[in-house]
């Protein structure tokens, strides 16, 4: 994103599971600030990273979205640009269904969805498993930590970030 001249800020949503459960899941901890609904209002573009649970966004992100009712009521996010990238623990774990189901959140808030499309030729390369799709960049990352993000997934993510940053810059 920053390659295109837009400033990127990283946040995480509030955790909803107890530490004991997270430990058993081998969940990673991220030293990032916790996002608030107001942070969404201040951004020009919203690039959501979605962990997938059972083919849809995780309960943590859904809980955060549920906290944005006051923004919905005032159309505070109307006209903002939005994109999605995903993470699943298996190859067929729901990258596309997660993105598709999250678009309804965009629609209700008036957020303009910016798909990745086939901007990157890497999406046509089937020589190795990867999480990218025209819906957005993605990674396959089993919860046991047995697979790291591949170089190809990183390239797709960089291309998606550059594409979305360019659209945000063009419209703001």
Mean pLDDT: 92
Distance between the termini: 14 Å
Give me the number of helical elements: 6
Percent in strands: 5-15%
Largest sheet: 5 strands, mixed
Range of helix content: 25-40%
Listing every helix as H and every strand as E from the N terminus to the C terminus, the arrangement reads: HHEEHHEHEEH
Helix/strand-derived category reads alpha/beta
What is the total tally of β strands?
5
Question: What form results from the Cα inertia axes?
Answer: globular
Radius of gyration: 16 Å
Low-confidence stretches: none
Question: Could you explain the architecture of this structure?
Answer:
With 172 residues, the chain is an alpha/beta fold. Helices cover 36% and strands 14% of the residues. It is built from six helices and five strands, in the order ααββααβαββα. It has helices spanning 19-24, 37-42, 59-66, 69-74, 95-109, 151-171, and strands at residues 45-53, 56-57, 81-88, 112-113, 138-140. Strands 1, 2, 3, 4 and 5 form a five-stranded mixed beta sheet that branches. A hairpin with a 2-residue loop joins β1 and β2. It is globular, with a radius of gyration of 16 Å. 31% of the residues are buried.
């Amino acid at each position: 994103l920053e390659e295109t001249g837009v400033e990127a800020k990283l946040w995480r949503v509030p955790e909803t599971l107890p530490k004991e459960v997270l430990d058993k899941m081998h969940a990673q901890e991220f030293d990032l600030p916790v996002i608030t609904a107001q942070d969404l209002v201040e951004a020009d573009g919203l690039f959501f990273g979605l962990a997938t649970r059972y083919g849809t966004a995780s309960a943590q992100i859904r809980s955060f979205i549920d906290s944005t009712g006051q923004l919905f009521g005032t159309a505070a996010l109307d006209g903002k640009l939005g994109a999605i990238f995903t993470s699943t623990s298996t190859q067929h774990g729901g990258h596309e269904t997660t993105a598709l189901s999250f678009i309804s959140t965009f629609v209700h808030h008036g957020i303009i969805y910016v798909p990745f499309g086939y901007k990157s030729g890497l999406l046509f390369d089937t020589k190795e498993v990867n999480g990218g799709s025209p819906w957005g960049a993605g990674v396959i990352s089993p919860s046991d930590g047995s697979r790291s993000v591949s170089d190809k997934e990183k390239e797709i993510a960089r291309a998606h970030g550059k594409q979305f940053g360019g659209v945000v810059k063009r419209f703001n």
